[in-house]
Model the fold of this input.
Amino acid sequence: MIRILVLPFFLFFGILMAQDITIQGSAIPVNPALTAKFNSVETYHIDVEETRLKFRNHSRSGMEVELILGGKSHILQLFKYNMYRPDCKIRHSTANGIVETAPNPDIETYRGYSANFGGQEAAVTFAKDYMVLMFREGDETYHLEQLPFEMKDRNPDHFILYDTKGVISNKNVTCGADEVTKFKTEHKHDLETAKERNRKCWEVDIALACDFTFYTFYRSDPAIAEARMTAILNFVQGDWYGGRLVEDYIYTISGIFIAEDMARDPWNGINDIFAQLNRFNQVGFTLFPGGFDVASCWTKKFTSGAVGVAFLPGTCVLTPFNICSEYTLDNTICRQLQSHELGHNWNCVHDPGGSPWIMAPVVNGSFQWSGASQWAISDWTFRIRACLGDCSAGDIPFAEFSADPTEGCLPLVVQYNNMSSNATTYKWNFPGGTPSTSTVRNPIVVYNSIGSFPVELEIANSKCSTKIEKLDYIKPRDKPRSVNFNYGAPNNGNEVEFFAYGDRVDTYKWKFHDGTTDEGDYVIKSYPKEGTFEVELCAENDCGKTCVKQKITNFFQPIADFTSDTTAGCAPATIKFFDQSSSNVINWTWSFPGGNPTGSFTKNPIIKYERPGKYQVKLVVSSLKNNAQITKDTFITIDSLPLAGFDPVVTVSTVKFNNTTLYGKSFKWEFGDGKTSTEKSPEHTYPDGRYEVKLTATNACGNTIIKKFVTVGAKPIAGFAVDNQNGCVPYTVQFQNTSTAKAQTFEWFFPGGNPSTSNMKDPIVTYNSIGKFDVKLIARAGIESDSISQQGYITVGEKPTSEFQNSVTGFTSFFTDISKKANTYFWEFGDGKTSTQKSPSHNYGVEGEFNVRLITQNECGADTMVKLIAVYLIPKVNFVSDTVRGCAPLKVKFLDRSSVDVLEWAWQFESGSPLTSSSKNPIVTFDKAGRYTVKLTVKNGNGTNSATKLRFIEVISPTKCPKLPPKKKSTDPTDNSQAFNDQIFSRSRVDYEVNVFPNPSNDEIFVQAKTGTKLTLLSLTGQVLLNRIVQNNTESMDVSTYEVGTYLLKVDHSDYNEVIKIIVNR
Done:
């Protein structure tokens, strides 16, 4: 049976212009053991499974692959093809007998060419956790494969890259075919006769086998053993196809045998390669489930002397067998070894010793056949041609087409012109078109939606098929869309500026309320009085027009005012302020000295006051064009809870209590012996002992309590107190020794404090970490002593840290608190609403961006976090670039200017490299002259949105950007050629050009001009606002703080000067 393969497609692979897959390796340290095998080798980490799935999931069989290793890029043009015959079966010789399976579906093979300079053939083979790749550039052959198994590195993502010239070769290996049979020197057909025959293609069925040594070397994994034999044959195919021989030979795998059990290995116990070949000859026809023309058996037994042997001739006769010993993991050697032994099966004898041919007696890694070998293979083919499949069915088809028109208005009717040759069938795909597919040679397709659509044509004949795809080929247009306008009145006057915008617009036409009209994307209209007026804008192009209407209002001076829900309270007090300014106010700037926060930009803020006092409040408001302010002194009065405190003074048995309380109005004393008092600073007499005294201080804001120990007596009785047992890190404590007067010496112990011990009477200790800490005091007088210990007496904390995350569904934002050490929460959602929940949700009800403030608090203080969040049903999308025009190759950095809620970015760059990107701010190179469209699609938690800027990037041909070599100056004073050349150079320079983008802008503009150009931004009245000098041909200017309106940019250079109108628009 003749099975047509797709290998001829490689000749026309260049028409597939898509670059689809990138393989990038990160360098890792070289295993020192590799230096015994290679003079030069590099090691990389590559995710093999990720790479395999990229190839498998690719939508087309043809692909362009960029291999990036060590900073160098290799472009490979590859095409997937199947090396297995449809009825191929794998026989596994296991301990339980023969098990027959289909080929491993994870094994995939690709062939093609390197597109780099001097590039030649390339081949890749994949299996699960397995990849091996070969490509040739010039006279160098590179192999990328996983680390050799003997390195004992079982990470499948570790790879080595080597050139075959860097392999340390084994000079002690040869082919043993001469000892099997002798070549017959007489031939019936001469070489000239073979050359006169038409070039043909033959399909050869090959069977592959491996013994137990080969199987166990590859981790006893039949899938890897199968993949390894398939990978080598994939490399071998390059020696037998593509003009290396008189005729082409395509090997297809008809069956595979894997010896997985030593006892059932047909070659078990054989240690002689010739005996191994004889055994193969005895059992070979019983090992494989189907017929075959030739068969190879792989082993790991033989590493010196004869490492390969074959019957000569063997193909299509009773001895179609050869033995190959994988004595090295060098894929070039393994490829040449199998091609060499197959050559014997095709009746080739050895070429002379030391010759650079595949059939040289010593294995040398050659890619070339000698003339004698080519003739021998052709001659044997002629003899056995009835045994082989003929795959030379006609010329290879060539695909090409054009369309008329490729652009136009909806509905766009396109007539396709099929310019293909050597084809009998046609299969079209028209995404976005009607019909979406066709088998007609020259179809007509209708497009009813706008966009940029690809077209694919696959053609075939009895030999093979080929395919061409043209991306963004058909571009239907429609009448203008997204048409609207902004407006504003500069200087609070009666002249209103209008700014039109839209997609696919050629002209703008305006109609005003009084019947007057105007044209242009920027016009000025004078209104004699304030009010609301209707304006109509119509945008037109060759496909029609779109009109919009708006009611506009001129501006007036705002009035600032405010009130609050209260003007007095007890600290900590939370007060809500209410804006009562005029209705045209759109921005608020509050100032709250002594408050938390100390300022706000919300309309109705909520402020917390922690300390007592009288405080000022200031509000600055602004409309679209004007501002006003109001200040109210001592507007807020804050009282405080009393700060209770007292100092006991002991005289023998009498204690005088000195009250140090702040803000207290009334007092209650509890002396610890059952007695009480309401005096401010009472005296009290005690019997000997230690007593806890409690003072409760009260005012209108509430009460506070403080406790201290006092010690009374003649004997040493230990006692101590502090003003406050609780504090915040770093917390410094003054210990007060309340031991009796009898005590003379003291020993303090402060675990966790600094110092940790002391013999001072009233020590000062600092705690630098949070926690609860014990305190112990020993008081002594002579031989008498007393001690007191307080467990967890001192408590040290720290202030909270505010932090939160949020997610948005619809109009609702879900807030998740991730603050640390917070006790209370206060949320301001940016729309005047608040919450005290820990992790609230809030329905905004409208789209917009909001400044959300979270204030957390504990006993050590408060912390505030402000975060801008966005609530959009679909995200707002916009972008700019650092340049829009330049010479090829032009590198452009794109800057995302979408809303803050964007989670994912998807860029498309017409003719860019790369063509797509998911980065937020990608860098893209445009290599060819032209004007190119850029599209950005963004996604938030609710949906997606996109923006397309047509012909956004302009790339100038290199011929218009000359780089002239320096001129050698003449030393002859009479030589006028220098001046003449200077005139020529002056006339040949590219015209000076200034680019300003984006214009209009809402925050930042970029100016592209010669380095050293002076830039001056002026108001319409001539006031200088900003000066810049262009550096590195590009300068940015921040206009975010300027009012909406029109400005003038003055450009000064020794070669050029110009004034450009700049529009600031929000």
In short: The mean pLDDT is 86.
